[in-house]
């Protein structure tokens, strides 16, 4: 049994409080936890005050975690292959003269203005580009791309293994193409079309295959710069489309929990300016609370238990 907390916490208890404080701001929760875990005699209220005092005295600050959502787009080169005809072509993979590589990757962080660019080197080697981008996505809490799950992430992983760069097998992603198919019926699910339909922008026009040939066969720097601009515009359009559809789709990553906020905060922007929209029950009789964020307009579901905890917090805050 631990002594009453007018005495200092043991090193073990201090470590526990510090570790928990990184995840939750709720000191009452931490106090209740250490009471059970370390068998304190004091009541939770007294423990709560002592936890607060300890955090203040030892100047322990919660690590503020920002929402790190990454938008990106990849442009690849083509396979160079010999062919004797142009209609119903069937090419054996043994005849590949030159493999497909990544020409450029453009990416931007949510809420930042800068679009970053990575380009293959002058010898058309993408080893460093792949290595650098893997370092970038390591820091992302969620990676957003249009058709990213099927195309971009797999292209990247294929280049990673072929250039001997290690990469995680799984990333938290949100594929805007998948979301578009799941929640809407636009005339087309192409990014350019959705952007146009929602009035948020369009892709840049380019000459198509000629641009690729100029870059890959003639190392045309001007054309390559154009491709980078085209890719950058795609990333900007991607973020704008994402922002427009976000209130209408369910999230893949809960940023409230990820940034150390309670579960009832908005999962999209981690705001606590939220309200109950309506309540329903599943076939099994489980109550679900549908919430609406007043900051970013996101709709989301929480359990009844989480909802009651929210009410408790709000009542306590109003006192
Ligand atoms: Zn929100």
Q: How are the strands of the biggest sheet laid out side by side?
A: 3-2-1-4-5
Number of helical regions: 11
Helix content: 40-55%
Poorly predicted tracts of residues: none
Oligomer: single chain
Taken from the alpha-carbon principal axes, the silhouette is elongated
Order of helices and strands: HHHEEEHEHEHHHHHEEEH
Strand content: 5-15%
Each distinct ligand: zinc ion
Structure description:
The protein is of the alpha/beta class. Helix content is 41%, strand content 15%. It has eleven helices and eight strands. The strands form two sheets. It has a five-stranded mixed β-sheet with strand order 3-2-1-4-5, sandwiched between helices. A three-stranded antiparallel β-sheet has the order 6-7-8. Strand 6 and strand 7 (287-293) form a beta hairpin. Helix 7 crosses helix 9 (221-245). The radius of gyration is 26 Å and the shape is elongated. The chain binds zinc ion.
Topology:
Layout: H1 11-21, H2 27-38, H3 44-57, E1 69-76, E2 102-109, E3 116-119, H4 127-137, E4 142-145, H5 148-162, E5 173-175, H6 176-183, H7 191-197, H8 209-218, H9 221-245, H10 255-258, E6 274-281, E7 287-293, E8 299-303, H11 304-318
Parallel strand pairs: 1-4, 4-5
Antiparallel strand pairs: 1-2, 2-3, 6-7, 7-8
Helix pairs in contact: 1-2, 2-3, 7-9, 8-9
The structure holds zinc ion.
The site of zinc ion has 8 residues, from loops.
């Amino acid at each position: 049994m631990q002594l009453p907390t007018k005495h200092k916490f043991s090193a073990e208890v201090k470590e526990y409080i510090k570790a928990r404080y990184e995840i939750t701001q709720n000191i009452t929760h931490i106090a209740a936890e250490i009471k059970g875990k370390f068998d304190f005699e004091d009541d939770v209220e007294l423990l709560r005050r002592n936890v607060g005092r300890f955090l203040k005295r030892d100047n322990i600050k919660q690590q503020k975690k920002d929402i790190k959502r990454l938008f990106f787009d990849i442009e690849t080169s083509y396979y160079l292959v010999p062919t004797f005809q142009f209609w119903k072509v069937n090419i054996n993979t043994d005849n590949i003269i030159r493999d497909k590589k990544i020409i450029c990757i453009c990416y931007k962080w949510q809420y930042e203005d800068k679009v970053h660019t990575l380009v293959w080197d002058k010898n058309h080697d993408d080893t460093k580009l792949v290595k650098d981008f893997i370092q970038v996505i390591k820091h992302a809490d969620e990676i957003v791309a249009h058709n990213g799950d099927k195309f971009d992430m797999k292209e990247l992983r294929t280049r990673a293994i072929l250039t001997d760069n290690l990469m995680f097998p799984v990333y938290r992603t949100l594929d805007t193409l998948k979301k578009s198919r799941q929640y809407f019926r636009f005339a087309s699910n192409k990014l350019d079309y959705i952007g146009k339909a929602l009035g948020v922008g369009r892709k840049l026009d380019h000459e198509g295959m000629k641009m690729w040939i100029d870059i890959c066969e003639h190392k045309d720097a001007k054309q390559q710069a154009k491709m980078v601009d085209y890719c950058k515009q795609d990333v900007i359009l991607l973020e704008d489309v994402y922002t427009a559809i976000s209130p209408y789709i369910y999230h893949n990553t809960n940023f409230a929990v990820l940034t150390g906020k309670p579960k009832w905060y908005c999962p999209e922007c981690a705001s606590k300016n939220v309200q109950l929209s309506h309540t329903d029950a599943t076939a099994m009789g489980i109550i679900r609370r549908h919430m609406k964020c007043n900051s970013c307009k996101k709709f989301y579901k929480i359990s009844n238990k989480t909802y009651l905890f929210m009410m408790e917090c709000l009542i306590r805050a109003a006192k």
